[in-house]
Design brief:
heterodimer; A: mainly beta; 4-stranded antiparallel beta sheet; 54% strand; B: mainly beta; 6-stranded mixed beta sheet; 11 strands
Chain lengths: 112, 113
């Protein structure tokens, strides 16, 4: 069974641009969560989608948004990029909303 | 305010010995706890979990202990192997998962030959 797939693996953007990251969950998993990992803050919860609905959202500005499609694939978007958005963005999927989450390898975003 | 704390940023253990990684939490609403292992350039890999109704869960070389009164959990790895060298994250979640997983900042475990 294929794991969680995130694309692209690496991305370089400049301040002010926007970016879209993609996540394909494990087949059959309907819950997809996104996390940001930085050296200073560690792993922080961004948001969670279940059956195409955003169920939960972490403490991040509105520049961070996401969506989930009918096949459970998810995208997250960051608009008006700031230097501080440089981080590893991780996607995780689970069978049920509070089940064990399985992570992808992440997308490393660098904002210059 | 850190709700999940891993107070040891790093831990060095000899191969074959026991590794004990600790985690403390402050939110009494957490009712499910997980340990993840992370290698560089990879996502976290699920290791083992425990529900708040239990005080111990075992899976091969890995055992997690939960002390609810102390709001403390620990991960024991016996025996430690070189491939166990990685960063270990403790995570917790409330019933319903309203705020996703809350992670500690991780402990870098180094297994020395």
């Amino acid at each position: 069974k294929a794991g969680v797939t995130q694309t692209p693996r690496y991305l370089i953007k400049t301040r002010g641009q926007q970016v879209t990251l993609s996540c394909s969950p494990i087949s059959g998993h309907r819950s997809v969560s996104w996390y940001q990992q930085t050296p200073g803050q560690g792993l922080q919860f961004l948001f969670e989608y279940f059956s195409e609905t955003q169920r939960n959202k972490g403490n991040f500005p509105g520049r961070f948004s996401g969506r989930q499609f009918s096949n459970s694939r998810s995208e997250m978007n960051v608009s008006t990029l700031e230097l501080g958005d440089s981080a590893l963005y991780l996607c995780a999927s689970s069978l049920v909303q509070t089940g064990i989450q399985y992570f992808g390898a992440g997308t490393r975003l660098s904002v210059l | 305010d850190q709700q999940v704390k891993q107070n040891s940023p790093s831990l060095s253990v000899q191969e074959g010995r026991i590794s004990i990684l600790n985690c403390d939490y402050t939110n009494s609403m957490f009712d499910y706890f997980l340990w993840y292992k992370k290698y560089p350039a990879e996502g976290p890999t699920f290791l083992i979990s425990i529900s708040s109704i239990k005080d111990k869960n075992e899976d091969g070389r890995f055992t997690v202990f939960l002390n609810k009164s102390a709001k403390h959990l620990s991960l024991h790895i016996v025996p430690s192997q070189p491939g166990d060298s990685a960063v270990y994250f403790c995570a917790a979640v409330e019933g319903g998962g309203a705020d996703g997983l809350t992670f500690g900042k991780g402990t870098h475990l180094i297994i020395q030959p």
